[in-house]
Amino acid sequence: MKPHLQIVKIGGGVLEDTEKLSAALHAFAQLEGAKILVHGGGKLATDFGHKLGITSQMIEGRRVTNEESLVLITMVYAGLVNKKMVAQLQGMRCNAIGLTGADANLIKATIRPKHPIDFGFVGDVARVDVAGIEGVLNLRMTPVFCAITHDAAGQLLNTNADTIAAEIAAAMSDQYDTTLFYCFDKKGVLNDINDEHSVIESIDETRYVQLKKEQRIAQGMLPKLANSFNALHRGVTRVCIGSVPMLSDTQYPRTTLFLHHE
Amino acid sequence: MKPHLQIVKIGGGVLEDTEKLSAALHAFAQLEGAKILVHGGGKLATDFGHKLGITSQMIEGRRVTNEESLVLITMVYAGLVNKKMVAQLQGMRCNAIGLTGADANLIKATIRPKHPIDFGFVGDVARVDVAGIEGVLNLRMTPVFCAITHDAAGQLLNTNADTIAAEIAAAMSDQYDTTLFYCFDKKGVLNDINDEHSVIESIDETRYVQLKKEQRIAQGMLPKLANSFNALHRGVTRVCIGSVPMLSDTQYPRTTLFLHHE
């Protein structure tokens, strides 16, 4: 039997709120066995950007990572947010080690093609070093990844944190029984976006295709679900989408994604 | 026989100059065997501080690390400087992994007593986790430490990079034959501060005491020498002070420090 590995991505309103973040880190610290945390930088990067006079160009609603923005997110994601989290987790007796994909070449990415749209220093994951991450886990260290990768030729790249979490989970699935948690400030995938009690308990692939066709999935949720089903196809055992309490309370509402209902 | 371990601290004018930094990283990447890099953030932190309106209070010529300054150095040292270096080293086929002392609890510090002077969030090294660093080295990863530690109770702390390098070198000396390099923009300890050709080739402890008594050591060099002799007393084999080329050229001028001439 493969050992269990839990990959937890926190974002969406959890990072910006000191109390919510602290609760999330507590819940994460309590998880037993091998685990990995993944995070972005949320609104903090935008706030520091304003102070530094760095504005992000947006194309079709998506941020372009120019050289200045890359400096900004490297400071905020890999520096401030990552290291404060690591220190907090250490204070909770969780042996966290903060990483980018550049560190030990654990996540190599390729810069996104400049056509049709040039998003700048944005990377798509090319390779996760399973043996490297396993080595770190075997030292009883808990990796905390921020949303930065590199091209292995000297260039840091901005990579979506949801994608990083899904790519790590998928890559580690050969060696581990993996559960991927997408932890944010909603209780799961909602049937009615205005009713937070309308959490859909589980979604298999047939239902996912149907929900998409009926356009009943909130716009912001679509990439999360696409990432999730991609990861499930590549061997991830289960994906849970919900809020922080789901990490410590197995009865807490959440949306669980499967390929097929058994 | 113990395996060799080289600890290289770079600072003082090397970090701010893209070409010098690149040369230093190249020389470091070429070093054979186990090695560790240590760096601060130099003038970059001051520059970003100006942009963010964060000014450092100075007491008796020494910087006070208030909460704002800690945010600043965490962004600049652990984020920007550390991760850019890691990416560059990876591009040179050196398997760098960027770390603070908080990561994997590798360097625990205690906050400096608030009396007689309150320096804020400044930490003095309490414990280097030799087994943890050895574990990372055994994974064929090359640690790159910035000048940040933690108290293991949730608080990041600012710690002098020269001291971190000396503490790591001293702690690792039980397991390794250690050489500590202090790499900056001078060729070594100078007999005459205005003559860069007046490098003192070697200094043993007797000569060190004598030079100190005669007040012939430049003010900025005193803590480096104190750190060095402290490390030598704790088992470090040799300390070399000089500029980047000494890393790759054994004939290049430098000052080598020993306890006793053999």
Structure, explained:
- 2 copies of one chain form a homodimer.
- With 262 residues, chain A is of the alpha/beta class.
- Chain A has one domain: Acetylglutamate kinase-like (Carbamate kinase, 3-Layer(aba) Sandwich).
- In chain A, 35% of the residues lie in helices and 23% in strands.
- The first copy, chain A, is built from 7 helices and 14 strands.
- Chain A has an 8-stranded mixed sheet, with helices on both faces. A two-stranded antiparallel sheet of chain A has the order 3-4.
- The longest helix of chain A is centred in the N-terminal third of the chain and has 25 residues.
- The mean pLDDT of chain A is 94.
Strand ordering within the main sheet of chain A: 5-8-2-1-11-13-14-12
| Poorly predicted ranges of chain A | none
Number of helices of chain A: 7
Greatest interface (CB-CB under 8 A), with counts per chain:
A-B, 43 and 43 residues
The CATH superfamily name of chain A is Acetylglutamate kinase-like
Q: Strand count, sense and closure of the main sheet of chain A?
A: 8 strands, mixed
Number of strands of chain A: 14
Structural class of chain A: alpha/beta
**Total discrete domains of chain A:** 1
CATH-level-2 architecture of chain A: 3-Layer(aba) Sandwich
Rg of chain A to the nearest angstrom?
18 Å
User: What share of residues are in beta strands of chain A?
Assistant: 15-25%
CATH class of chain A: Alpha Beta
User: What's the shape of chain A?
Assistant: globular
Mean pLDDT of chain A: 94
SSE order of chain A: EHEHEEHEEEHEEEHEEHHEE
Helix content of chain A: 25-40%
Q: What fold name goes in the CATH topology slot of chain A?
A: Carbamate kinase
